[in-house]
């Protein structure tokens, strides 16, 4: 997104750090003197596969560590892979309805 597009979203809000989520995609960028951070998704990340032109859920958790020390901000976006078979077993044992449908979009992290 351009700064002009973000102007419409933030409508004049100002802060040193703007953190949010909901998009399930990691983001770290500067915007008009502010840092925008989105850690991604711990439980439901998604990836677009350009070859198959499909969206899928990789078996990984995304999160961010923000540290401010002596006026310096450090943003560390992290991704941790996990075993897809462990996820499948846990979901099937959970009693959650429609597990086959839900698990259909999950893939091992590449």
UniProtKB/TrEMBL annotation:
InterPro entries per record: Metallo-depent_PP-like (IPR029052)
Gene3D superfamilies, alphabetized: 3.60.21.10
SUPFAM superfamilies: Metallo-dependent phosphatases (SSF56300)
Protein name (Swiss-Prot/TrEMBL): Calcineurin-like phosphoesterase domain-containing protein
């Amino acid at each position: 997104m351009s700064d002009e597009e973000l102007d419409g979203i933030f409508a004049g809000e100002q802060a040193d750090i703007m953190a949010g989520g909901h998009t399930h995609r990691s983001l770290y960028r500067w915007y008009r003197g502010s840092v925008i951070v989105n850690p991604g998704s711990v439980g439901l990340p998604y990836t677009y596969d350009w070859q198959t032109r499909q969206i899928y859920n990789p078996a990984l958790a995304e999160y961010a560590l923000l540290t401010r020390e002596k006026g310096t901000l450090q943003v560390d976006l992290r991704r941790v892979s996990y075993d897809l078979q462990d996820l499948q077993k846990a979901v099937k044992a959970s009693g959650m309805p429609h597990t086959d449908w839900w698990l259909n979009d999950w893939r091992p992290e590449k």
